[in-house]
Automatic annotation (TrEMBL):
Annotated pathway: Phytoalexin biosynthesis; 3,4',5-trihydroxystilbene biosynthesis; 3,4',5-trihydroxystilbene from trans-4-coumarate: step 1/2
PROSITE patterns: AMP_BINDING
AMP-binding enzyme C-terminal domain ranges (all copies): 438-517
Protein family according to the UniProt entry: Belongs to the ATP-dependent AMP-binding enzyme family.
Protein source organism: Oldenlandia corymbosa var. corymbosa
Example GO BP: phenylpropanoid metabolic process
Protein name: OLC1v1004739C1
AMP-dependent synthetase/ligase domain span: 21-417
Alphabetic keyword roster: Ligase, Phenylpropanoid metabolism
């Protein structure tokens, strides 16, 4: 057996770039991208545009492992860059478009980005970020290489907006690079599937944001594993409500190409934009943070559309309250819950539906099962929950015992950029699930509640007691009469009395990270000052 060797015929390094090449051949005339009223591309055209862009990147001295940053919403350009940038041998760095100028400047400095693509909408914040970098060069001993800047104008209806601030490369535009690129460009063959493909910065909910580096191999296997785990059939119509900057859209930037699907891009996930896209284009799938579920649920009757075929929804973050899942399904959205982290190239576990659950119907028990986080995707060699990271002793798989999530597999990151000392610690991700989730589930059953989060607050006798932060539905006729006592009474009717929150704080908005996760640490800080009378 040892004499059998790999060669070009029986071994090809894994890379999601192959998904695009295949889609251009197998699904050549199928619509690949829809954006607005006037922009449509086929997979053949998308492949050609990506080759043109990769060719232009090479002409700008982008070489292997150069970092190319992009600051943009869910538009065709950022989708194309997920293929074109690695085609040029470079590493794509999608920047969270909700960040402030200082944080963007820190990312550009830390990543040593050679190019920065900026959507016209974010020119002001990008200009401010670049000014911060220029100021560092003037006022400190530090020398920061300024990235070359290219504006992405609005495709289909250009605005003419360009980056201002006296930079030498002021005025360059994305479509110009695409037009002047070589449509026959042939990317260099990938020699090592361990090569880097993306650099994504964590949201920093538990620590300082770090640069997560993922490989071609990890991206390829994660994308395939997710379309299998979610049971995504061929040629889906996928609505981009999840930001592509967030773990490359949980790897579906590449996964939709693998399925020959259609990417429906919307600049802003408003109620009108989402329901209109679902109606016009026959959307079959979408991923989103919990906040998007709330936006869809709070829509006025005249803003909604009839959904004849269920839209498959993959959501993440903390487990969704069964009541919320039930409300979404009544509207025509079939919600599946997943769990993941940037370090795992996105989603690592998906709740796989079991046929036996159909007998439970659309009741709380079925919704409760769908709100769980399920089993590890196939790119992971092992998923476990342990009591102690040193002993690695597994806890009982009974849905009650708590522990620490431990992941192992090819979908995990290569490591943190310039932070090798933290790599070993990052293999595990702590996710403690507490009784607050059960209380939240009950609060969500109240017809006037849009969002809820339960944390601990000081208690003079018991040390701690539950405190609920509640956001009410918009335009609720009974809203003026809803008070703390009603929410507490509602909880006592559905929970043991000791579990009911001792205090309810009504808020306009729950604090969230830039990726839509509720910031429980911030809520706990707020709750520390509360006093039970």
């Amino acid at each position: 057996m040892d004499s059998l060797r790999k060669c070009q015929a029986n071994y090809t390094p894994l890379t999601p770039i192959h998904f695009l090449k295949r889609a251009a051949s197998v699904y050549a005339d199928r619509t690949s991208i829809i954006y607005g009223d006037n922009v449509r591309f086929t997979w053949k055209e998308t492949y050609q545009r990506c080759r043109r862009l990769a060719s232009s990147l090479k002409s700008l001295n982008i070489v292997k492992d150069s970092v190319v940053s992009v600051l943009a919403p869910n538009i065709p350009a950022i989708y194309e860059m997920h293929f074109a940038v690695p085609m040029a041998g470079a590493v794509l760095n999608p920047i969270n478009s909700r960040l402030d100028a200082k944080t963007i400047a820190n990312i550009l400095k830390h990543s040593e980005a050679k190019l920065l693509f900026v959507d016209f909408q974010f020119v002001p914040v990008a200009t401010e970020a670049l000014g911060i970098l220029q100021n560092l060069n003037r006022t400190s001993m530090m020398v920061v290489d300024m990235p070359r800047v290219i504006v992405i104008d609005n495709l289909g209806s250009p605005t003419g907006v360009r980056l201002h601030g006296g930079l030498e490369d002021e005025g360059e535009e994305y479509e110009e690079l695409v037009r002047r690129g070589n449509p026959g460009y042939v990317p260099d063959e990938l020699e090592d599937e361990w090569d880097s493909i993306t650099l994504s910065y964590t949201s920093g909910t538990t620590s300082t944001p770090k640069g997560v580096v993922c490989s071609h191999r990890g991206a390829y296997l994660t994308a395939l594993s997710l379309i299998l785990g979610w049971e995504m059939g061929k040629t889906p119509v996928y609505l981009w409500t999840l930001p592509m900057f967030h773990c490359s859209g949980w790897s579906f930037t590449w996964g939709i190409a693998a399925r020959g699907g259609t990417n429906v891009c919307i600049r802003n996930p408003t109620v009108q934009a989402m329901y209109e896209a679902i109606s016009r284009h026959g959307v079959t799938h979408m991923c989103c943070a919990p906040i998007i579920l709330s936006i869809l649920l709070e829509a006025k009757p005249n803003e909604r559309v009839a959904i004849n075929n269920p839209v498959q929804v993959l959501t993440g973050g903390a487990p969704q309250p069964p009541a919320l899942v039930g409300k979404m399904e009544a509207l025509g959205f079939s919600v599946v819950h997943g769990y993941g982290l940037t370090e795992a190239t996105g989603t690592a576990l998906v709740c796989e539906w079991q046929e036996s659950w159909k007998d439970l119907g659309a009741n709380d028990q079925a919704a409760q099962l769908k709100s769980r986080q399920g089993v590890g995707i196939l790119s992971l060699a092992d998923v476990d929950v342990v009591k102690d990271l040193d002993k690695l002793e597994s806890v009982a798989r009974d849905g009650k015992t708590m522990g620490e999530v431990v992941l192992r597999g090819s979908g995990l990151m290569k490591g943190y950029l310039k932070d090798n000392g933290s790599d070993r610690e990052s293999i595990s991700q702590r996710e403690m699930v507490r009784d607050g989730l059960e209380i939240e589930s009950v609060i969500y059953k109240h017809p006037c509640v849009a969002e809820a989060s339960v944390v601990a607050m000081p208690h003079p006798k018991w040390g701690e007691s539950p405190c609920a932060f509640v956001k009410l539905m918009k335009d609720t006729s009974a809203m003026s009469s809803i008070g703390e006592e009603e929410i507490i009474s509602h909880c006592k009717q559905n929970l043991p009395g000791f579990m009911a929150p001792k205090m309810v704080s009504f808020v306009e908005e729950l604090p969230k990270t830039s990726t839509g996760k509720i910031q429980k640490l911030q809520l706990r800080e707020m709750a520390r000052s509360f006093v039970i009378s």
